[in-house]
Design goal:
single chain; alpha+beta; outer membrane lipoprotein receptor (LolB), chain A; twelve-stranded antiparallel beta sheet; 12 strands; 22% helix
């Protein structure tokens, strides 16, 4: 159960084609400039709302598992809302993590929450500009003509037990995250594409309300 939820939060961690269909990536020419631009974008970004499509590739299944939903972020509040095929949501509010489904609202236990907090800190780093200070991952910086790509390899032992690498792709025009890929040790992988992103529009506090 914990592994399943951790994987979910990691990948719904932030939109077009798969990485394999993109132009080849090469070493980023100016990492310092990229970090500066990311920090500037983070200061300007107050809220994010986006649609997403998640695809899970499992070696024992012929077809990918496709899910669709909505992502909301406001300050330190996050909501991942799955619409299909099974509706449920994950809400992160003041370091409290809840899963909401047809059975109601459930808070994760202390052990799960400790892991989730680390993951949430990493996710927040993408939009707050301090991702590069996260010591749980080593980062390889790449780019092509249209995108930046960060390959994050886990260094924390608890992550290394099931996670091989996370790839995060950024649009070069606005420095927003457009694709997220998580590769497991088993070589199974999950991708999320973000589209119809809306930056700095008003998001109701009700989206993040927990009891």
């Amino acid at each position: 159960m914990l592994k399943c939820f951790v994987k979910t939060v990691l990948i719904i961690c932030f939109c077009t084609n798969g990485f394999a269909q993109e132009l080849p990536f090469y070493s980023m020419s100016n990492v310092a400039e990229f970090k500066t631009k990311m920090a500037e974008t983070a200061i300007k970004t107050k809220t994010i709302a986006s649609e997403f499509v998640q695809k899970k590739h499992l070696s024992f299944m012929e077809e990918e598992i496709v899910s669709k939903g909505l992502f909301f972020k406001k300050e330190n509040l996050v909501r991942w809302e799955y619409l299909t095929p099974h509706p449920y949501a994950i809400v992160i509010n003041n370091n409290k993590i809840f899963v909401i489904d047809e059975n109601g609202q459930n808070k994760l236990d202390a052990r799960s929450s400790k892991v989730f907090k680390k993951i949430n800190d990493m996710m927040m780093g993408f939009t707050q500009g301090d991702l590069f200070d996260n010591n749980d991952f080593s980062i390889n910086y790449l780019e092509n003509n249209k995108r930046y790509l960060l390959e994050l390899t886990p260094t924390a032992e608890r992550m290394k037990k099931f996670l091989k690498r996370i790839d995060v792709s950024f649009d070069k025009t606005d420095y927003s995250v457009v694709k997220f890929k998580m590769l497991e040790l088993s070589e199974d992988y999950t991708t999320i594409d973000f589209f119809n992103k809306r930056i700095n529009e008003d998001i109701s506090a009700e989206k993040f309300r927990i009891n």
